[in-house]
Write a structure and sequence with these properties.
Blueprint: H1 14-19, E1 30-37, E2 43-45, E3 53-56, H2 60-69, E4 74-80, H3 100-111, E5 116-121, H4 143-160, E6 164-167, H5 174-185, E7 192-199, H6 206-212, H7 231-244, E8 248-252, H8 258-267, E9 273-276, H9 279-290, H10 296-310, E10 314-316, H11 320-326
Parallel strand pairs: 1-3, 1-4, 1-10, 4-5, 5-6, 6-7, 7-8, 8-9, 9-10
Antiparallel strand pairs: 2-3
Helix pairs in contact: 4-5, 7-8, 8-10
The chain binds 3-(2-aminoethyl)-4-(aminomethyl)heptanedioic acid and zinc ion.
Length: about 325
C-alpha cells in the first residue's frame, strides 16, 4: 500500500518503541514525599496510603540510607504535629525552630549532603481549623495575613537549609511574597521556589489528609484550590506564578489533569514542570492492582508515561522507593 500509511516499522523493536517517547523516566526526576511527626521515635503505617509511614526524626536516617544508596535524589517534607495543643488559628507551629520540619531539614542536610531537600509550605497541618491559611471571621481566607504567614514559614525553612520551598496553600500572591522575602534575606540565589501553581480541589487527597491530620474542620478548599473544570483559571494561575518568580511550576493532581500539565509546559516552556501523583491516585492504583484490574508495576509505569508525555520532567510520587528498584538510572 501507500508508503506513508506504514507506521509499524518505526516501533517494531523495544528500543525503537522507547525512542518514540520524548522523555524517559529517570531517578533524578523523582521526589519522594516524607511525613515527619513530632513524636521522635515513631514509625506508624498510614492505613489509607499503602506502604507509607509517618516517622519521627529519629527514624528518618535509617529509612533513607538505603534509598539514597539506590539513587534517591530528592524528598519533599510534610510536617505532622501530633502533640496536643500544637495547633492554633495562625499555624504558629509551622515554623517552630524545634519543630519536626526544621529539625529534619538540618538533619538531612547534614547527613545526606547530596540529597535535594524540598519542603512543602502550608498551614493546614498546623491550624486548629485545618485550612491552608489564616481565616477571617466569616471563615474565608484572609489573603494578606495568610500570605504574610506563608512567606514567613517559607523563609524559615529556606534559612534552615531547604534547597526548595513549595507552597501548597493556593493563597493569591504567595509566590511574589516568598520571592521578595528570599531576596530581602539575601538567600534567593540558593533557594528554588516551586509553585503548586495549578492545584485542584477534589476527592484525591483523602489518604494524605489521614496521614497529615490536615482535614479542614469545616467547609472545604473549593474557594482556594482550583475548580476541576477551570482550565482557563489554571492557565492564568500558571502565568501569574511564573511572573511572580516561580522557578518550577507544579500541577496537582497529575493523571486526571494531563491537559493542565501540557498547558503548563506550553505556558512555561522555559521552566521545568513538576507533577504531583497525589495520595488518591497512588491508593487507587494499589486498590485496582489488588482487585486484579492490572499489574501494579505496569500501571505505575504507564501512569508516569502519561505524566511525562504531557510535559512534566519532575514527578512527586509515593512510588519512588519502588522506582528506585525498578529503574537502572
Ligand atoms: N496543603 C494542602 C495539602 C494537599 C492536600 C489537601 O488539600 O489537603 C496536598 C499536599 N500538598 C495533598 C497531597 C496528596 O494528596 O498526596
Ligand atoms: Zn494546606
Amino acid at each position: 500500500g501507500d508508503i506513508s500509511s506504514q507506521l509499524h516499522g518505526g516501533y517494531a523493536h523495544p528500543l525503537a518503541r522507547s525512542w518514540q517517547a520524548e522523555r524517559q523516566l529517570t531517578k533524578s526526576m523523582l521526589i519522594y514525599p516524607l511525613f515527619v511527626s513530632d513524636n521522635d521515635d515513631e514509625e506508624v503505617l498510614i492505613p489509607s496510603l499503602p506502604n507509607q509511614y509517618r516517622r519521627g526524626i529519629n527514624r528518618l536516617v535509617p529509612f533513607l540510607e538505603p534509598l539514597v544508596h539506590k539513587g534517591l535524589r530528592s524528598v519533599i517534607l510534610f510536617g505532622v504535629p501530633l502533640k496536643p495543643g500544637t495547633k492554633d488559628a495562625l499555624g504558629t507551629a509551622a515554623d517552630d525552630p524545634e519543630g519536626p520540619v526544621i529539625k529534619s531539614i538540618r538533619l538531612l542536610r547534614q547527613r545526606f549532603p547530596q540529597l535535594y531537600i524540598t519542603v512543602d509550605v502550608c498551614l493546614c497541618e498546623y491550624t486548629s481549623h485545618g485550612h491552608c491559611g489564616i481565616l477571617r471571621d466569616d471563615g474565608s481566607l484572609n489573603n494578606q495575613l495568610s500570605v504574610d504567614r506563608i512567606s514567613d514559614v517559607a523563609l524559615a525553612y529556606a534559612k534552615a537549609g531547604a534547597h526548595c520551598v513549595a507552597p501548597s496553600d493556593m493563597n493569591d500572591g504567595r509566590i511574589r511574597a516568598i520571592k521578595l522575602k528570599l531576596i530581602e534575606e539575601g538567600i534567593v540565589h540558593r533557594v528554588t521556589l516551586m509553585s503548586y501553581a495549578a492545584k485542584f480541589s477534589g476527592c484525591l487527597y483523602g489518604p494524605f489528609r489521614d496521614a497529615a491530620g490536615s482535614c479542614p474542620s469545616f467547609g472545604d478548599r473549593k474557594c482556594y484550590q482550583l475548580p476541576p473544570g477551570g482550565r482557563g483559571l489554571a492557565r492564568r494561575a500558571i502565568v501569574r506564578d511564573i511572573n511572580e518568580g516561580a522557578d518550577i511550576i507544579m500541577v496537582k493532581p497529575a493523571s486526571q489533569y494531563l491537559d493542565i500539565i501540557s498547558d503548563a509546559k506550553e505556558l512555561g516552556k522555559d521552566l521545568p514542570i513538576a507533577a504531583y501523583q497525589v495520595s488518591g491516585e497512588f491508593a487507587m492504583i494499589h486498590a485496582a492492582a489488588k482487585a486484579g484490574v492490572f499489574d501494579l508495576k505496569a500501571m505505575a509505569f504507564e501512569a508516569t508515561e502519561g505524566i511525562l508525555r504531557a510535559g512534566a520532567t519532575i514527578i512527586i510520587s509515593y512510588f519512588v522507593p519502588e522506582f528506585l528498584d525498578w529503574l537502572s538510572t
